[in-house]
Amino acid sequence: MSKIYKEIGIGFIPVLLIFLVFLGVNVIPILFVSVLGVSLFYMIKGRGGAGISAGGGDRKSKNRTPSYLTFDEIGGQDRAKKELMEALDFLIKHEEIKKLGIRPLKGILLTGPPGTGKTLMAKAAAHYTNSVYMAASGSEFVEMYVGVGASRVRDLFKEARTRAVKEGKDNAIIFIDEIDVIGGKRDGGQHREYDQTLNQLLTEMDGIHTNDAPRILIVAATNRKEILDSALLRPGRFDRHIEVDLPDKKGRLSILDIHVKNKPLAQGVSLDMIADQTFGFSGAQLEGVLNEAAIYAMREDKLAIEQHHLASAIDKVMMGERTDKETAQEEKERVAYHELGHAIVAEIVRPGSVSQVTVSPRGKALGYVRHNPPKDHYLYTKDYIEQQIMIALGGAAAEEIFYGGRSTGSRNDFEQSLSMVRNMMDSGLTSLGIIDRDMVTKDQLMKENTIILDALMIRTKELLEQQRSVFEHSFAILMKEEVLSGETFRKLFDDSVSKSA
Questions:
Q1: Which superfamily does 329-500 belong to?
Q2: 460, CA 20 to 30 Å: which among 32, 140, 268, 487?
Q3: Which residues cross the membrane (predicted)?
Q4: Which listed residue (159, 193, 339, 448) is catalytic?
């Protein structure tokens, strides 16, 4: 019907304008007012559609509770899941906790690095509590127009209550991802829209009556907790702060087991080895490793994923895809000596830690050594950090031994070394003792930094000078094959050491 009216209007309006011109009427003011009115109408209509309204079809379809996702389907994070489920029990067992005078939680803040599963845990929380699930990103509340964000916060809470009543559920979970966008510390500046949005969120959380049905729980996620306003973090708003950290080896293996269920693995593939080699990987990166491995298998027309596909996938996630850079022979030789320097030092100070040595360009790197940490580390001694610095300096030291100077290829190695020296200083592991950086001059810090790195560079060169035979035996094979596995490299290393002994 609206289409018919639109066609009648399109045909009638030009005829009316022509008739008015024929009568001698000035139609320019009429055209101007008409255009202005139509423009305002569509602007208001567009703003209404973009807001978070109870009748928004897109919002409703986006916020359907993902009933298929449970905590069992989230690998690793056993501690975080247990803590979250305990907090959610306050929502489920409200009658029991009322007897003990416990106030139900109003908000749960999930913090941790990107890709660790914070969003997945919020979805699983909705399934666990049989709640209406609504999701929004912090950026959805930010507009250049003052008051729009606050209005959207009100609409979000209103819609949560409306949907819970409509679907006959006692609880609703509102998930706000990247809450730091609207929840940053208020500094009294001119960001009135951000402040009004945050103030409205604080007001709504204060207004949540936990004994009234439907009950609302706010779950928020951020990887920058330190910038959040203190008013958000206090009890009565976000009562629980749950750290969703990078998984340990057991967690990584659990995540791999979940994501491999729909992927065929070849006989003899060891996921335990992949869990070892992916120290520091998030859940999202581990899923990416398996996905990339499947792509490599498809490229080779294989029916199952093999171990070398997984190894290549780890390299791709860490370094990027292989490039078509054609390096000159002299440059390739320098890269080979550089990478062997890293690998030899690593094998000396931490036997068995080298997983692969390659001179194949990948991402921005012309070559690299992939290390296989024997076990997860979270506390580091001075000796351990110094060994890590020596491994990082091994490439530059090898170039100095064989070429008499360094190249720009050591830039990233030096950045890592400087970062580790900074960590030593902040941890009181240098001759400066326990320091406050604001109380120490830059000259003192630079002097100590130079002393540490120069001493470690001398030690590294001395180690490599004693292993020239390892360079000689490994160099030719690396130049020919372009890739040395950890096992092959260790065999060459052991053979060279035994012959020179």
A1: Peptidase M41 (1.20.58.760)
A2: 487
A3: 12-44
A4: 339
